[in-house]
Amino acid sequence: LSPGAKMGCFTFIKVMMILFNLTIFLSGGTLLGIGIWVSVDGKSFVNIFGTLSSSVMQVVNVGYLLIAIGAVLLVIGFLGCCGAQKESKCLLMMFFSVVLIIFIVEIAAAVVVLVYTGFAETFLSALVTPALKEKYGEDESFTRTWNDTMNEVRCCGLNNYTDFLNSPWYSEHNYTFPAACCNYLQPCNEAQAQKSNVSGCFDRILEELKTNANVVGGVAAGIAALEVASMVVSMYLYCHLDKK
Length: 244
Hints:
The protein has eleven helices and no strands. It is mainly α.
């Protein structure tokens, strides 16, 4: 290519890099703002987005999660946008390093999820099951959230109905289990719960993920492709600056 063509290619890629990272920066700012809103006023968030958001908030702290993701996107967008605009090798290398670290963490997380699903279930059981035995039926918000989750996902507890043994609900409701554990047949005693054999929420969510594996895999592959493309472009700009 002629020097003019090379310069035109460099300018085009530079502009695309700026626009792409400006979008990331604005998206990060939006997520950060929503995260702060959820952390400060979670009730409004649940009222607007309904019971499903309440269920999600029971599993993870949505506010802090959005703040973390938004902050990371802000940093990535700033480094990429300013690095390309100012043609700063330092910022471009920092951008490349941050995206590479995130890419490696995502690969590691995917491997852990695929290989250590049983470990994840054991870990969650150690955290969630004691909470169910301690709070379900006593903590109104906790109980309502789990009821919404079980109704939405059509499941019972994290593993099965035994998660509710010796819970406040179990003691106060004549040694019965939540209706979802018996496909809403009453009374939901141990014999009926065994007969109904309703799956735990962990297994049901895994089934949903497997059912939608193509969609989940496609989204993950798309994100990975964008990250690889970002790293390639940043390295192209970085190396081209030596020749200018």
